[in-house]
UniProtKB/TrEMBL annotation:
Phylogenetic lineage: Bacteria, Bacillati, Actinomycetota, Actinomycetes, Micromonosporales
The protein's name in its UniProt record: Prepilin leader peptidase/N-methyltransferase
Domain Prepilin type IV endopeptidase peptidase intervals: 104-215
Family that this chain belongs to: Belongs to the peptidase A24 family.
Function: Plays an essential role in type IV pili and type II pseudopili formation by proteolytically removing the leader sequence from substrate proteins and subsequently monomethylating the alpha-amino group of the newly exposed N-terminal phenylalanine.
Superkingdom field: Bacteria
UniProt keyword annotations, A-Z: Cell inner membrane, Cell membrane, Hydrolase, Membrane, Methyltransferase, Multifunctional enzyme, Protease, Transferase, Transmembrane, Transmembrane helix
Spans traversing the lipid bilayer: 6-23, 101-119, 126-144, 150-171, 207-224, 236-255
InterPro entries: Peptidase_A24A_bac (IPR014032), Prepilin_IV_endopep_pep (IPR000045), Prepilin_pept_A24_N (IPR010627), Prepilin_peptidase/N-MTase (IPR050882)
Compartments in which it is found: Cell inner membrane; Cell membrane
Amino acid sequence: MTALYLATAVLGLLVGSFLNVVIHRVPRGESLVRPGSRCPRCETPIAARHNVPVLGWLMLHGRCHHCHEPISVRYPLVEAVTAMLFVAVTARLGLTPELPAYLYLTAVAVALAVIDLDVKRLPNTIVLPSYVVGAALLAPAVIIDGAWGTAVRGLLAMTVLFGIYFALALVYPGGMGFGDVKLAGLLGLYLGWMSWGTVWVGTLAGFIIGSLAGLTLMAVGRAGRRTAIPFGPAMLAGAFVAIFLGGPLASWYVALLAPPGA
């Protein structure tokens, strides 16, 4: 298993490096292919040896080799966090047919969370194709394991969460965007694949995390009652809480509700 975790970590670093490109260019409508990686300030191409995930930033001491302007620490953080999440998801699922699908969700989650924090938007160019990619990556598990019931539950959860968030967006448009609605359906597919308990834990955790984040920002003077706070990162964080802890949390809640001696 150590070799698997090491390979997953390296893959996560490489994917994280690409996600930095996605995070920077997708909101601007720029190509992900051309031009190659370059300094965002002086636009000098980045040498291959300086483009190694995390290590390249450390080698440059966090500054552009050409213009010496600071390079945001967010770049190596995105790479490192992606690698750590890849390893954690691999440890959670093991070498199963579903693993590629959940690694893909992990990569999408990192990109969407940072983009939403940056521009308060969840780009359709990432969210909508992820429905197709997610379903395609989960399909081998249906074929190999015969998990037809699991697939149906995932599709039902996708529909239910999309419907719930759609209703919330209609009732309270100032607090819920349609980007959140589309993301909810995608998360429903993945959480429903695991269990209904995971769906409800992930949904509730998202609202709790979003509320706590909003209250914290208000307490420190970074936001007011009318400040628009992106909800996508909270939804994604809640989903991953459920992926890792959904089963135990759901069981604990059911036991809490059950009368003594039942």
